[in-house]
Design a protein that fits this description.
The protein contains 9 helices and 13 strands. It is an alpha/beta fold. The protein has a single domain, classed as 4-Layer Sandwich (Purple Acid Phosphatase, chain A, domain 2), CATH 3.60.21. The strands form 3 sheets. The protein has a 6-stranded mixed β-sheet with strand order 1-7-8-9-11-10. It has a 5-stranded mixed β-sheet with strand order 4-3-2-12-13. Strands 5-6 form a two-stranded antiparallel ribbon. α3 packs across α5. It is globular, with a radius of gyration of 17 Å. About 40% of the residues are buried. Bound molecules: manganese (II) ion. The site of manganese (II) ion has 7 residues, from α3.
């Protein structure tokens, strides 16, 4: 059965993986230009948090969303996963940063850029609801915004979380968990989860790191936000992956 919340990528072709852009339109354009929309075996995955720039003057969230919505509807090799910032708009759970209400800021940005809020806002939230949670490659790489959820102890539990929709506490973990918090997940949780889903390694964004960090068989990577060395993955989907080292060597750096 096809799960619309899980992208299954084949054992051939190429894959670019990009983490949290937070409204950085220049970086979005840079990564989109690495990709070839006309090559159906060449995929690009954004792992969520396309939106919510830190200041309104430079926030390209609206431009990014308009382009990403258009590409998503045209190209089956263009993928945007759900991040906690998109999830917040779906669930109406406000995120505060520096005492600012980011959902309210986004509405202000939409009305400033468009001259109106509706139907633009509703269309954006509809787009967020189409976003898959995860991507998995045939050679064993699991990609999500964050996580894993330490609550998942079996494949049945993992499969069941999709039935609970946006209120799932496990989905919450896959959007919000930080590797820096031992109460959220540990190296053992990463490895147990990878065993459960039959993957060799995991790639996430969400937690700002300088370039990237390894956490057991997980790569935490920063492609745009809050890093000096912008880091992304350019993966050969046909290559065998035996360990995290095989993925690590496919990291690319922008200095
Ligand atoms: Mn995030």
């Amino acid at each position: 059965m096809i799960n619309p919340k899980m992208i299954e990528l084949p054992n051939h072709g190429r894959l670019i993986v990009v983490t949290d852009l937070h409204g950085n339109l220049d970086d979005y354009n840079y990564y989109v230009n690495l990709w070839d929309e006309s090559d159906t075996d060449f995929h690009i995955v954004f792992v969520g948090d396309l939106i919510h720039g830190l200041d309104m003057d430079s926030d390209g969230s609206v431009e990014i969303l308009d382009d990403a919505m258009s590409k998503s509807s045209q190209f089956a090799n263009f993928h945007t996963l759900l991040g906690n910032h998109e999830w917040a708009h779906i669930t109406h759970k406000t995120i505060y940063k520096n005492h600012e209400d980011l959902l309210m800021n986004f509405k202000n940005l939409v009305s400033f850029k468009k001259g109106y809020i509706e139907p633009a806002l509703t269309n954006y939230i509809r787009f967020f609801k189409t976003m898959p949670y995860f991507a998995r490659t045939a050679n064993g790489i699991f990609i999500s915004h964050s996580g894993p959820s330490a609550k998942i102890r079996s494949i049945e539990a993992f499969n069941r979380m999709f039935e609970d929709g946006y209120s799932s506490p496990m989905l919450y973990d896959f959007l919000w968990n930080r590797f820096t918090k031992v109460t959220q997940y540990t190296r053992e949780d990463v490895d147990r989860f990878l065993d459960i889903v039959g993957c060799k390694c995991m790639v996430v964004g969400h937690c700002p790191v300088e370039s990237y960090e390894l956490f057991s068989n997980q790569i935490i990577m920063s492609s745009s936000f809050d890093t000096k060395v912008k880091t992304y993955l350019d993966i050969d989907l046909s290559a065998d992956v035996d360990s995290i080292k095989d993925v690590q060597k496919q990291l690319k750096f922008r200095i």
